[in-house]
Every structure is written in C-alpha cells, then in structure tokens.
C-alpha cells in the first residue's frame, strides 16, 4: 500500500480498487499489531498512519454511499 494516500487520490479510484486498498491496509495493520505485540515493531508511527488510511478509505466509501461525492475520473489535458 502506498504511503500517504490522500482523500483526493482515493476519490478518483473506483469501488473495486477502494475495496482492494482497504483489504491491503487491514492486512498491514494486522501485521503491524502482531509485530508490536511481539516487540519487533520498529516504526510505531506507521501504525497511526495505516489506521488513518483505513479511515480515509471508509470515509470516501461512505461519501459515495450517501451521494455526497460521486466518482470523479481524472482528465488529462494534453
């Protein structure tokens, strides 16, 4: 999963991609928690970052569900 995903970057993704990114982030969070519990985690800040990425993905998915924001495709002017 890419580091530093923004809500704007997530809004241009389709639903299937968001679900895949959410799955990857949850797997990473599980692995980080496991490392933390066994004392092998070196970067505790990554736990916080992954939790925030998951929250961003859920937020974008919920916005679409409520009709607040629709899927916006990037257009290339070139």
Describe the 3D structure.
- By secondary structure, the chain is mostly helical.
- It has one domain (7-66): Helix Hairpins (Orthogonal Bundle).
- Helices cover 64% and strands 0% of the residues.
- The chain has three helices and no strands.
- Helix 2 packs antiparallel against helix 3.
- The longest helix has 23 residues, at 15-37.
- The mean pLDDT is 87.
Summarize the structure.
With 78 residues, the protein is mainly alpha-helical.
Number of helices: 3
CATH topology grouping: Helix Hairpins
Major sheet description = none
Q: Which class do the helix and strand fractions yield?
A: mainly alpha
N- to C-terminal separation? Answer: 29 Å
Key terms for this structure?
78 residues; mainly alpha; 3 helices; 64% helix; elongated; ribosomal protein; structural constituent of ribosome; Ribosomal_uL29_sf; Ribosomal_uL29_CS; Large ribosomal subunit protein uL29
Summarize the topology:
Layout: H1 7-11, H2 15-37, H3 45-66
Helix pairs in contact: 2-3
């Amino acid at each position: 999963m890419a580091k530093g995903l923004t809500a704007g970057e997530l809004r241009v993704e389709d639903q299937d991609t968001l679900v895949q990114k959410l799955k990857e982030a949850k797997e990473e969070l599980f692995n980080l928690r496991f490392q933390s519990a066994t004392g092998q985690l070196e970067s505790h800040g990554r736990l916080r970052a992954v939790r925030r990425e998951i929250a961003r993905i859920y937020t974008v998915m919920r916005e679409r569900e409520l009709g607040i924001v629709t899927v916006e495709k990037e257009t290339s002017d070139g």
